[in-house]
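Batch manifest, entry 17 of 40.
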Amino acid sequence: MTGNLLLTTGESFMGTWHGTETAVQGELVFFTGMTGYEEVITDPSYKGQIIVFSYPLIGQYGIESLYAQSERIQAAGIIVAELYEGPLPKQAISLAQFAEAQDVPLVSGIDTRSVIQHVREMGTMPAQLLPGNTPEEPWQLLKTDFFPEQYAVPAKQFGEGPLHIGLIDFHYKASILNELLALGCRVSIIPYHAAAALPEALGVDGLLFSNGPGDPQALNSRLPVYRAWAERYPSFGICLGHQVLAAAFGATTTKLAYGHRGANHPVKNHKTGRVSMSSQNHSYVVEADSLADTPFEVLYENVNDGSIEGLIHPHLPITTVQFHPEAAPGPADHLALFHQFLKTANDMKKVKIHA
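Output type: structure tokens
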């Protein structure tokens, strides 16, 4: 069956439809990595988005739950140039089967090069995926707020270890939790709308503010709480967590034309001068000019466009990065950031014990 990609600018692209015959709308974005489609489509930061993969062949190693970043596909739709449909490892299912089982449309045979070129010229935009001869539907406003006031997820705890880390849940990736557990931490998942006293009640030694979808301004009402937490505990912010911590101390954020999404983005460390490769997935960035109203200093800068990729507080133990140091998918150049964060939390814990 044919499938159509329709853009708000009027362009349309035809391909082959796979799976559920339901029309969807979402923000059209593209991912530049050569591998990692499993991690990408299950990454909560892609909630509600239609993902175009730039690599010409997708699906060649199937899907294994080991690499999923959440319990289900988070993207609204998936677009590929060519869908691999050959033999797979015994433990894997095909990408098409995975998408169909979760009622997420997948369209192959699209001229993804032209689509991505259009997005680079015009910016991300609403798009529709339409099966067969389904007519165009009324356009809906893009969803940018994924943080309802009532979010019925209680605090959970994982692992055992002497160091207790609170993971602030803005819809975190599983790889962030897994990295903390691999480093021997006990981890409490703290909902983004948790009571201000919860970290103290849980007895955490540090806080990791997670990644997440949408506009960071959706969390503005919580910024005083997040600032109070960061002023009390060693804190590490990743992606949305980086934006939220910056905003909590007075910075502002803005949306990029087409965002950074891929496993190959170079960033420069201002302290060492070293350039390293990073995995990224975000639409919004901290505005550089707004940092003058905050105590933060720039730690990382994007080599391609000069945007802010990381911050450090000169007096408090707070570090933030716009990219993903847990790197799923992507390079492992920045895993040391986890070690630095945990060392700081452990050192401060020792000081409290001996005080």
